[in-house]
Amino acid sequence: MKRTMKKEGMIRGVRTGIRPPRIGGCFRSPRGKETGLHFVRRSPVRLLLATLLSLCLFTVQAPIAQEVPSAPDKSGTSFYDQCGPAEKDLHQLSTAENVQHGYCMGYVAGLTQGVGSSELIHNVKRSERIFCLPAGATNIQKVRVIRKYIGNHPEEAHNPAQGQALAALREAFPCDK
Q: Where is 24: in which H helix or E strand?
């Protein structure tokens, strides 16, 4: 029978890969020193590789961020201009247009679900609701309705986008009285 000695991750002088005991969120090295980043003390090359990898990731993301204009959060005009790509085929969109498409879909979904939830919580009668969406109405249909309304009412396009959207949805999807 072979005699083995276990001493802080060593068996007969060979590293076992067992980590040193953990003390207070840090690792204790075999020499008794505490280190917060155990991979740094093992290999400075790993730190260099991790740094280079993070720089590469940020460099790749920078051009995408520069292509995407600000979100349509101000006026009906900005919604109209920036949500134009939402009506195109998804397979024909650039990266920036794809981001705009996602934002517009999320904006319209959030607006309609928020209004619907508020009306439900406050027990608003169906006849007094702002709009009544038909079953199966999609977000792209809602975007088209809002853009059409803004295009047909240029005198109001400078007003906030959420007001334009609510007016468009009320006009397109009135509730029965």
A: none
The answer to whether the beta carbons of residues 30 and 9 sit under 8 Å apart is yes
Task: Determine phi and psi for 175, rounding to 5 degrees.
Answer: -95, 145
Give the DSSP letter of residue 10: E
| Predicted structure pTM score | 0.58
pLDDT score at 92? 82
Q: Which two tokens stand for residue 154?
A: 């240029």
Helix or strand run (H / E) with residue 27? strand 26-28
Grouping H, G, I as helix, E, B as strand and the rest as coil, residue 28 is strand
Cα-based distances in Å from 43 to 17, 23, 80, 155, 174: 14, 21, 54, 65, 67
40-96 confidence digits (pLDDT tens): 455 666 666 666 666 655 554 444 444 444 444 578 888 898 888 877 777 888 888
Q: Which residues contact 99 (CB under 8 A, 6 or more apart)?
A: 64, 68
Nearest one of 89, 99, 92 to 61, comparing CA atoms? 99
Strands 22-23 and 14-15, bridge-based pairing:
unpaired
Residue from 164, 160, 140, 142 nearest 152 by CA:
164
